[in-house]
Amino acid sequence: MIVDAGWEHRYQEAVDLLGDFISSRLGGLLPIEQFRVLLVEARIAERLGKADVARRDAEQALELMAKNESVLPRHPGVGVIRTGKQTFRELERLATLD
């Protein structure tokens, strides 16, 4: 919401919240959670003019999409990445930032 609304004064808060979320997941993140964190971080980095960070995060998100496997053998559909073409195109664009 912070990113979509363009509340630049709260971007650091969003990054901090993501860090807290990652830290709270002792067993690790599901692929979809990793993907969402990387997507938000890439969007924030681009808006802050940090093209190298945006590019890195977008590339990692695209790599996750390429694998897109559940880490829960008994629940193969849980945690997999499901996203639309618009998000995929956005990540491709972010992955090529200079």
Which bin fits the share of residues in helices?
55-70%
Quaternary assembly: single chain
* Rg over alpha carbons: 14 Å
Structural class: mainly alpha
Q: Helix count, per DSSP?
A: 5
Low-confidence stretches: none
Shape: globular
Q: How much beta, percentage-wise?
A: under 5%
The main pleated sheet reads as: none
Distance between the terminal alpha carbons, to the nearest Å?
Answer: 26 Å
What is the count of distinct domains?
1
Counted beta strands: 0
Question: Key terms for this structure?
Answer:
98 residues, mainly alpha, 5 helices, globular
Brief overview:
By secondary structure, the protein is an all-alpha fold. Helices cover 63% and strands 0% of the residues.
What features would you describe in this structure?
The chain has helices at residues 2-5, 11-24, 31-47, 51-67, 85-94. With 98 residues, the chain is an all-alpha fold. The protein has one domain.
Layout of helices and strands:
Blueprint: H1 2-5, H2 11-24, H3 31-47, H4 51-67, H5 85-94
